[in-house]
Amino acid sequence: MGENSGALGRLARELFRWFLAIMGGIAGYQVTEFIQSAGWWPFQTILMSLAGTGSFVVVFGGVSYLIAPLFHRGILRLGSLLEGHLQNISWINISVGLIGLIVGLLLANLLALPFVDLPVLGRYLAILLNVALGYAMMWLFIKRRDDMVAMMGSVGGIWRDRQGEPRKRQGKYATMDLQGGTLSPLACPAKLLDTSVVIDGRILDVARTGFVEGALTLPRFVLVELQGIADSSDPVRRGRGRRGLDVINGLQKIPTIRLEILELSLKDLNAETVDLALIQLARDMGGKILTTDYNLNKISQIQGIDVLNVNDLANALKPMLLPGESLMVDVLREGKEQSQGVGYLDDGTMIVVEDGGRAVGRRVEVTVTSMLQTSAGRMIFGRIRRESAA
Questions:
Q1: pLDDT tens digit string along 164-175?
Q2: What's the average model confidence in pLDDT over 365-375?
Q3: How many angstroms separate the Cα of 266 from the Cα of each of 5, 19, 170, 229?
Q4: What are 365's strand-pairing partners?
Q5: Starting at the edge strand that comes first in sequence, how are the strands of the sheet with 288-291 ordered?
Q6: How far is CA 9 from CA 15, 81, 242, 261, 297, in A?
Q7: DSSP state string for 228-292
Q8: Are 66 and 19 in contact (CB under 8 A)?
């Protein structure tokens, strides 16, 4: 495969050199025609004229053939430079910016039509209008990207309605304007995935149920961190990283979910850590952070960033136990306080049993006395009602 690629590359370079040589020969021929039309041609006979023309063609073509590698390397460097800059720009921004550029060029040419016949000034005025309006409209469209995307989505929905096709949801909600009686799109805030929620994996189960819709945004720097964990020499970390990559693949296969990879690095956001970069990105985009990280949850809330904590969702869905209710618990170990025992419910909820230290390794019936709810989880406190004979 590598040999084939190298052979194709050499063939492409050689074809480029001959193409440039042919263009140089054509340029040499056109130079001789210009010299003849200007009366500067020193050759009078047909034979001498043909020899002079051939010399110009050969010289220009030969020089073009020799300097072709320089042009080839310059084009490759320019392509690499453009690719490096475009990697940090999302495809949506490129598309919207291109549409804005086209609109600006159309407006510029329409405005320049009355001035085309002006001597000297008309041509330069047309160039100035094209550059100024093209850049201005491209900048404006990128700045109002969300509005442009919403407008194009609405136009597409109207077209589908006219064609008798059902309108598909594109991550937008429609709200009724009670005064005007018209529908206006309300964009869903961006939901940014962090490393912890991907490794945790429960977001995949939630997404499969249909409770999450629209777009999930995965920044490139989160994916890089996840890849680093998957390549770790520690087998535990490596397993966690690979599970996270499997979760990403699973999210991409869900038809109601659109997983967008945002091409941004820590350097682009001037952030030292992934958590700080996520907070900065959520602030800039007006989005929310999906996480299971307790510390990131608190830091984000302090800075006014909305957080969707999967742990909070899991805790909210756990069955509620009221004081006075009884349940059977296997006391597995001693607690931090003297005489306390610790057990777990089937959903992983910790239950602290008063005077349960003496019942370690046995099943007891516990009466619930109180509950403590935190972002890290739910804790149940109770006392032994009776020991089970089992």
A1: 544 433 333 333
A2: 80
A3: 34, 43, 29, 17
A4: 328, 386
A5: 257-262, 214-219, 191-193, 288-291, 307-309
A6: 10, 20, 36, 31, 51
A7: HHHT-SSHHHHHHHHHHHHHHHHHHT-TTEEEEEE---TTTTT-SSHHHHHHHHHHHHT-EEEE-
A8: no
